[in-house]
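Entry 14. Structure prediction run on the chain below.
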Amino acid sequence: MSGQITPYAQYASAYVIDPDLERARMVESMMREHLSKEQMHLLRDALESVFAPSDGSSQDNDHYIGIYLDAKRVENLSKRTLAYYEQTLSKCLAYIGKPVRLIDANDIRRCLSWALTERKVTPTTVNNERRVLSSFFQWLENEDIIRKSPVKRTKALKEEKADKKPFSDEDVAKMREACVSVRDKAIFELLLSSGMRVSELCGLDRDGIDLTGRECDVLGKGNKRRTCYFSAAAKMYLTRYLASRTDDEPALFVCKARPHNRLSTGSVECMMRKLGKRAGVSNVHPHRFRRTFATNNLRRGMRLEEIQQLLGHSNMDTTLIYAKIDREMLKVNARRLA
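Output returned:
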């Protein structure tokens, strides 16, 4: 095992700071209450020019990324979101190759152009990365580490708004018929009728399901709990699936192979892609079930406020994106009220 770097050592290395930079921060801390904001920036610029290492200040940038992620972790962001933030910031700052205090708007534009032209990512992905950079540099500004966020002077790219359609009744019928195992049928019916996120589904335990009442409590974004309700079909397949289980794993859904570990979000996403291929339905993924759930309930006359609560959205605008009002329904209602 000698010579190998453990995951802990790799993680901890991001927080190893050059001793000179650490002393410079001590000077900043000692002078903070004695200097004005403008004087503090001048002091920082001077310390930066004297103590900044010649390797692009990668250690210093890693330090700021680390404490920024700590701040976001306190805000209850998910592990998946934090990992995306860390990956995006590390990649972008490494490309720019400057200490965060010296990065300007042109550096941000150059980085976004690199993503678009050389990495060949979509404008949507570029805008997502820009939002991460904006959050990071705004935090640096709020913490008085930089004078002004360089991202403020850049503009988001124009995106072609894709028409994200819910599943049609025909799509649902095809997929329902193509489901193979009782476990997959239970997952399909639960996603379709409850509107829960795939991460919420994978986080469910057996004892968290009320089959009699056809409801369950899920842990959503921001560690917020809410109640989801499911159909009689979902109850039927859940009952059959649980009766077929011989393991003692507390998770509601587990892998088919031993040792029957809790099913991951990636496994469910993979399962849905395979289901779509068998059924001849394109673009099948768990999130599309939420869109279908919202649209179907809107067609049935459910109020948007109720759909918002069932989906676990804190903002009504998000619910409006999910709930697609089809033209036929709009035409019928317009004529009825005319």
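The longest helix spans residues 123-142.
Filed with the rest of this week's runs.
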